[in-house]
Amino acid sequence: MILHFGLGAFHRAHQAVHTQEAGDGWAICSVAPRSPDVVRALRAQNHRYTLLVREGEDVSATEISSVRRTLHAPTETEQVIQHVADPAVRVITLTITEKAYADAGPGSPIGLLAAGLARRTAAGAGPVAVVSCDNLLSNGPRLREAVLRVSGSVPEEVSFPATVVDRMVPATTPEDLATAAKLTGREDLAAVVAEPYSQWVLQDDFPGGRPAWERVGAQFVADVEPYERVKLRVLNGVHSTLAYTGALTGHEYVSGALDDPVLARLAERLIREDVLPVLTAPPGVDLPEYGAQVLARMRNRALRHRCAQIAMDGSLKVPIRLLGTVRDRLAAGGMPRWACLAVAAWLRHVTVSTDDAGRPVEVDDPRADDLRRLAHSPRRLIAAVAPDLADHAEVVARISADLADFAAYGVRECLERA
């Protein structure tokens, strides 16, 4: 049995699909940390839902049935803790977003996990792997640290393997639900949409056993760090860059932003000139080919991946997705021109929050108010997310100049000039 925290679309389009396709009888109990809506929808349809895979004009529908039970953490807290402690549960996975790792309250996923692991140890329930599937550097060790902060100790029989996950899963729209109903002949309020591509790289440390995910393309490696760095800096870094510059230039979707030749050139040059020169290729990965594949995937217009969705929580994502590239380019003696421009676009997005035409853009960031109070000082803005870079005069000057130019001429004109 697998217990999963986070009942969002990504889990239902990624881990649940891999588990079903592995075909060895493992079932999932999924926990919704907040909203009960998906729990209600899945329970009403016997926990079966549709995966729509879209590429261009092509769409296919597959029924997913690996999720056998759902729990709503705020109203079924004791059942969640019991499941963590259940000896039948041998794998616990999480997709709870970056910001949830800092929340250790009793009802939070980290708090519930820590309480359940303590009960599990006291009962001698056996070994378990606790697997973060979130876009965090060293997500396994980060998860272990989060649990340790709450519980004070972690039993030896509990492992925290690091992982890398990748699949583009936009928010499901009413049109997607209508397509699922048309293809399956039944209403499905829990349907999810994804691209054909799916990647899962895992450190093989599962003391209680695991599904044979390698049968369906998962890679088990000794060290996930090279894969993690490539994915976070190429795919996620470019995704964030297009989300901020796209929103600021009036584009609703990432694919539409890439249809704009000016933004497409920015994405290409960011990859080629800033990101790839400071990356080490994992075994079997051709970095230029990977970069080209990333852009091709983002151009899939069928996904309708909203810039606003990718732009969320930038104060948590930008340090992971872009600032590592900035630091490594500086250390190599280069000036990360395009990565700095992307950081400036994020700062304008979160502090000014209007596009080139003066229309408001959607901002959902836990530090938005704090950053707006610092908007008069680019150096203080940079210091708020990267104190070391705030002491680098060239970086501060470059980002300050971009912000001033954005204000004077608009983002798109500045990109054209650059």
UniProtKB/TrEMBL annotation:
Keyword Oxidoreductase annotated = yes
InterPro entries from the UniProt entry: 6-PGluconate_DH-like_C_sf, 6PGD_dom2, Mannitol_DH, Mannitol_DH/Oxidoreductase, Mannitol_DH_C, Mannitol_DH_N, NAD(P)-bd_dom_sf
What are the UniProt keywords, alphabetically?
Answer: Oxidoreductase
Highest taxon of the source? Bacteria
Q: Does the keyword Cytoplasm apply?
A: no
Q: Which stretches make up the Mannitol dehydrogenase N-terminal domain?
A: 2-214
Q: Where is the Mannitol dehydrogenase C-terminal domain?
A: 223-403
One of its Pfam families is Mannitol_dh_C
What catalytic activity does the UniProt entry give for this protein? D-mannitol 1-phosphate + NAD(+) = beta-D-fructose 6-phosphate + NADH + H(+)
Molecular function in Gene Ontology: mannitol-1-phosphate 5-dehydrogenase activity
Looking up PANTHER family in the UniProt record yields: MANNITOL DEHYDROGENASE 2-RELATED, MANNITOL DEHYDROGENASE DSF1-RELATED
Protein name (record): Mannitol dehydrogenase family protein
